[in-house]
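Hi L., both proteins are below.
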Amino acid sequence: MKSHLIALSIGPVQDFIAAARRTRDLWFGSHMLSEIAKAAALAVHNAGGELIFPHPGSREKLSPETDFTVANIILAETNDPQTVRENAEKAARESWLSFAHEAREKAGDMVREEVWKEQLGDVVEFYSAWTPVSPERYKAARERVMRLLAARKNCRNFSPFTGKAGLPKSSLDGLRETVLKENARSRGPLRIKPGESLCAVGVTKRVSGEGRFPSVSRVASDPWLRGLLTHQKGRESLEKMKQHCEKLVQSGALSRISIKNGLFNEFPYEGTPLYIDRHNSVEKEAPAGSGVSEILQEIRKELESLFPSFGVPSPYFSVLCADGDRMGKAISRATSPDEHRNLSSALSAFASNARVIVEKNRGVCVYTGGDDVLAFLPCDTALSCARALHDDFGKNLEGVSKSVKEGDKPTLSVGISVGHALEDLADLLDWGREAERRAKADGKPAERDGLSVIVRSRGGADQFVRERWGRLEGDGVLLPLDQRLLFWAEAYSRKALPSKFGYEVRSTATFYKHWTDGLSCARALKMDLDRIFARKDVSLSEDERKIAEKSISAGITDAEDLERLADELIIGQWFSESIRQAKGGKPRASDDNAA
């Protein structure tokens, strides 16, 4: 065993991840921080350090070409902590500079060179701590080195101010002055909006690296686009719109997106042109004299010819935030570096699988690292993705928690927030994190391992449901929440339930709010629910009715229980529109969640 345990922290998280206006800023900031941490981890390995977190298994996984994700905290054993620390910091700063230099070339003459150079050296935050370690004292040494690292981070470095007077601050985070010249507006890959300012970090996130991350409007419109592919007319119109969108790309008014595995290849562009009410914004950002108005008019004609058969593409999509439960306990239980490496390997395997799971569900990962996942998904696949992530996390962590009692095993809580693509990105992320917090039962340990769903419609009241994850284990057992929501959504999508069904159940719940006789209330509720489900416009099959009866009869004894059922039904209806569109179905006569 090496003589010292060293911990490294790399940042800033705020600059790289939290500050973002476009999805591209958010995704690439996360990617860049992981790559910088990966470079530091490789330097630790090359300097003779034995990595614990992360534990890649082979040196090759730490090369820049791999999808291996590294968190911003690194833990390793070493005999020479000073050398390891120096090499890791140098590698981290060089990695950042490689991204920045690439961005500088792409930004061209839009950048103030003097301000750019001044900001480059003041970006990467690097902190370290180390302590002696012995085989029998590993647990105590790990706890000590993490305390030392936290203390070191609290003793922040304050460099002399080097900003320029008279220049506006970055509109993303307000920390540094803009590096852009006054005439840098809607030119080239930066796509600067009027009034927007970017510092060196913002410019690097916007243009460094290859490809474009899908916009939230592209994610939201994905079910509708898939629905077009189910019909000849839809396929023909889609090909025509792609030709028009290619002209928009050539004019500089639209970005083409690219994902390594070919996801979204059927329409590899931002989704903005698919929403007629967003055409004005495309025109405003387009260069003068580019002929964008005429191109958009052609796209509008195609869209209007499709609406009677396929409806209007839904502008709503899902933000999925997942986080492991009891991970602190899992880490603290380890008494040797090998135990920690096993845990690290399990988390790395989950992070790798998570990206595949999200993409299989037509989503895009902003970040997958360790036990954290942040992803954007179409509404029709979000619930299935959440279930797959939860089950895969349990499978990967099973080996490291076999000897742990049931209540202390690591689990995954998942929050899903459904929001409108035109909402501010920061708000959409906050809502996703709120859904995750609620899934974790607001920090109550015994109630974690949950799924929560929040729907925030424009101009309507929020809808919320939350429940601990459950399994379908045989007759007589209530369907788990994700399965119930999908069941209601499928029924709505086939018009087996009327569009106002959930609201009628809520109205019934209001009627029973002040009943004090519990037994009479439960009986009356059951009779009313039977009446509602017996309506002529409810066309469930016999098997479906049995499932519905099981779902509504289990635990519904008062008005509060009935309100929860109403929330489920209403939220299920929100998912139903995307399910219907993905199948190429015709729009409902009454569309409660249309844009």
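That was the first. Here is the second:
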Amino acid sequence: MTIAWLAAMAVALACAPAAVAAPGKLTLLGCQSSAAEAALNGCATLEGAGGLNAMAVSADGLSAYATRRGRLTGFARDPNSGALTFRDCVSSTVASPCDHVPLLGGDLSELVVTRDGRDLYVAGSGHTLNGFRLDAGGALTHSWCEYSAYGAEGDLPDCAVGDFDETLQLAASEDGLSVFMADRICTDNTGDCAFGVIAYLRNVETGRLLAAGRTRWTMNGGGPFAIDRGGQTLYQLDRRSDRISVHNSVKPTWGMRPIQCLSPDRTRPCDRIRAIAKASELAVAPGGRHVLAVIRAGGEPSFVLMRRGAGGRLRLGRVIRPLRRSPIDAIGSLRFSEDGRSLYALARANKTMLLVRFRVRRKSGTVAFAECISPARLRKCSVEPRLDGLRSFFLGGGLVYASTGSDESGSGTLMRFRP
């Protein structure tokens, strides 16, 4: 999830019963809202439904977890309908009905749940990393925390000093053995910043994370990273230099070994791929055979398709322009479906946020526009007026969840769609 991208493009999504969709289209199954919103839009009321920054569904489909500013909420989930029921929550401030965990931090933007359903990790305020143990029913128990090494003077006595300065992004390997976190460190006198990704080894018995390695620092242009499902290969984007660095995890320590860099110009020792200039985001297809980078081609959002070779090294496949003559002027927050047949993204058109789905040919990796859902009339899009205010979307349990509203107040709506 690229939270910086979302923050730069705020707007959102709501709910309403939808007409039956055509085969292959997203079908609205239902919606749940904060009390204030439910009174207006007819959705079922759900504590903690609105303004979500991050959300994850457990591998068994029976639990879901979501964050907004200063709060982490746990839900029981109906595996058939995808509907959620409030179960528990923790908050960095004293706020009923949540347990008070002051070390949680404020801006909770990153969330990871391990596939075995035993651990949850959340990053807050850019300066804290918290671990929660999950019981057999999915309930939350705060286990440990670490905070920024920047200016660390013991001001959080119940929290250990971490190996990071500022948390930006979290991701976990499918087997749950490794967790990756983007880190940024800036100097006070010049304002220059360096970016890197830390690889953690997870202790399955305790849930604690041990820093095992780090990618090389990039200066002032750190962008998002993406990993393959096994956590074997990590792709890191540097927006300032337009470079993509490729790293392999070295078992058993999970240290990071650089194996390739890509650049749009002739910069040694990088391989040249001109098309990646001004790339803004990366996504790795399930199976790891292809990597997509978001670029602009012909003045419109497009993709660079790169094919993965031996050891994770990349080579240019082709530039794909699935949004020709479309009013959509920006896309981000790319997420592949579990089966790799669809790619979802947030999009912007005429200052309005909408949800877009692309069809993916799994063998070739090429993508084509499939559908979009917009709160206002837009060419080629289905109209759902109460999608107004879309801020984020998530995949889990075979469904697509979309959130509207304010992450500060928690007002808003959570909608769920079946592909």
